[in-house]
């Protein structure tokens, strides 16, 4: 599972070397059916609908994503609700709380999935792999399947293979429950069911260490949040206001900041004389990424206080405490927590970029 996450995050950076690309962001992004985008497409917003054709790769991040067109390269989607109804010539990555591919969809090569619920109704040319809380498989996989459902999955039927499914290779999955395989499903290769490692005293200690680490992270964020409010109160208010007012733009700028900064730093390193600047840039980038989640936590706290605790709505410190606690509890949720943390990082980075842009 962790390996799949690392692969997914790394491959998001690969298409940045291409020279031709288009960037679209806003609360609502729409590419009509008759539009052709040459090269790569980077899109971010609350609602994304791509009906047109993209000759290169496509990277999208948003709350709701609908891809209906043809993609000449690779597909990389990060969002809450993802619906894929198009055709991709190469690989696909779908990361989200809910991901669905329609019966008419096709992915030419491999598909990596990460998230909570995933439903495959279309075709995957080669391998399907990754991790999820629940998978319904009713489509066709050209080669092998390798899925991880976690050690403590509470769903009674985490993996269902329907009668319309066809797997032209090996089926391998890790789960504490057997897959539900309907009559009529075709699996040409071997089926391998691996069970999660049994809970032992050592694993209990590891879980305790994991929760202790989360607790330390929470208190560290509270300390950093207090410092931010103490020294940069007005800037914190401006950034959180901008994230709230321009969510789509914040997400778009956040994606650009996350992906382009390492590329710029590498270019500076190559020049030799730019090494000091590259190191400074990367340090600021890492600091901004850490602070971003704290800023989103403060925004959550301000929103909650304004709606449910009107007498204390102007207390930024109280908003910071409430918001960061709520945010970090969400970040700790299995499967979807890290997706929410990534989205918070993108929104926070985008808010910082918008303030810098105005300045």
Structure, described:
By secondary structure, this protein is α/β, with parallel strands linked by helices. Helix 2 packs across helix 5 (275-308), helix 3 (233-245) crosses helix 5 and helix 3 (233-245) packs across helix 7 (337-358). Mean pLDDT is 85; it is low at 1-19. It contains 7 helices and 23 strands. The strands form 3 sheets. Strands 1, 2, 4, 6, 8, 10, 12, 14, 15, 17, 18, 20, 21 and 23 form a 14-stranded parallel sheet that branches. The radius of gyration is 22 Å and the shape is globular.
SSE class: alpha/beta
Give the overall shape: globular
**β-strand amount:** 25-35%
Give me the strand/helix succession.
HEEEEEEEEEEEEEEEEEEEEEEEHHHHHH
Main pleated sheet: 14 strands, parallel
Percent range of helical residues: 40-55%
Low-confidence segments, ≥5 residues, pLDDT <50? 1-19
Number of helices: 7
Q: State the separation between the terminal residues, measured CA to CA.
A: 42 Å
Oligomer: single chain
Radius of gyration: 22 Å
Instruction: Please tell me the total number of domains.
Output: 2
User: Got a strand count?
Assistant: 23
Query: Can you give the mean pLDDT?
Result: 85
How would you summarize what this structure contains?
About 40% of the residues lie in helices and about 30% in strands. It has about 350 residues and is α/β, with parallel strands linked by helices.
List its traits.
single chain, 359 residues, alpha/beta, 2 domains, 14-stranded parallel sheet, seven-stranded parallel sheet, globular, disordered N terminus
């Amino acid at each position: 599972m962790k390996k799949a996450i690392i692969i997914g995050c790394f491959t998001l950076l690969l298409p940045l070397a291409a020279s031709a690309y288009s960037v679209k962001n806003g609360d609502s992004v729409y590419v009509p059916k008759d539009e052709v985008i040459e090269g790569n497409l980077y899109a971010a917003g609350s609602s994304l609908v791509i009906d047109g054709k993209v000759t290169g790769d496509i990277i999208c991040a948003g709350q709701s994503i609908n891809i209906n067109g043809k993609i000449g390269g690779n597909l990389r989607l990060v969002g809450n609700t993802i619906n894929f109804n198009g055709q991709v010539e190469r690989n696909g990555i779908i990361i989200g709380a809910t991901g669905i591919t329609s019966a008419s969809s096709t992915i030419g090569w491999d598909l990596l999935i990460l998230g909570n619920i995933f439903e495959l109704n279309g075709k995957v040319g080669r391998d399907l792999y990754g991790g999820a809380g629940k998978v319904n498989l009713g489509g066709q996989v050209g080669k092998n399947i390798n899925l991880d459902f976690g050690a403590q999955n509470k769903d009674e039927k985490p993996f269902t293979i329907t009668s319309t499914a066809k797997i032209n290779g090996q089926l391998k999955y890790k789960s504490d429950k057997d897959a539900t395989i309907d009559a009529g499903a075709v699996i040409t290769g071997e089926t391998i069911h691996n069970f999660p490692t049994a809970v032992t005293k050592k694993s209990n200690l590891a879980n305790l260490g994991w929760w202790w680490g989360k607790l330390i992270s929470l208190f560290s964020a509270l300390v950093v949040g207090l410092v931010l409010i103490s020294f940069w109160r007005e800037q914190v208010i401006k950034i959180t206001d901008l994230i709230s007012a321009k969510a789509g733009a914040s997400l778009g700028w956040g994606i650009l900041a996350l992906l382009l900064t390492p590329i710029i730093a590498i270019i500076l390193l190559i020049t030799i004389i730019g090494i000091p600047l590259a190191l400074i840039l990367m340090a600021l980038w890492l600091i901004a990424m850490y602070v971003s989640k704290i800023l989103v936590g403060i925004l959550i706290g301000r929103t909650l206080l304004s709606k449910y605790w009107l007498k204390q709505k102007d207390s930024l410190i109280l908003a910071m405490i409430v918001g960061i606690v709520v945010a970090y509890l969400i970040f700790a949720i299995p499967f979807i927590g890290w997706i929410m943390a990534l989205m918070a990082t993108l929104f926070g980075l985008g808010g910082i970029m918008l303030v810098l842009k105005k300045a």
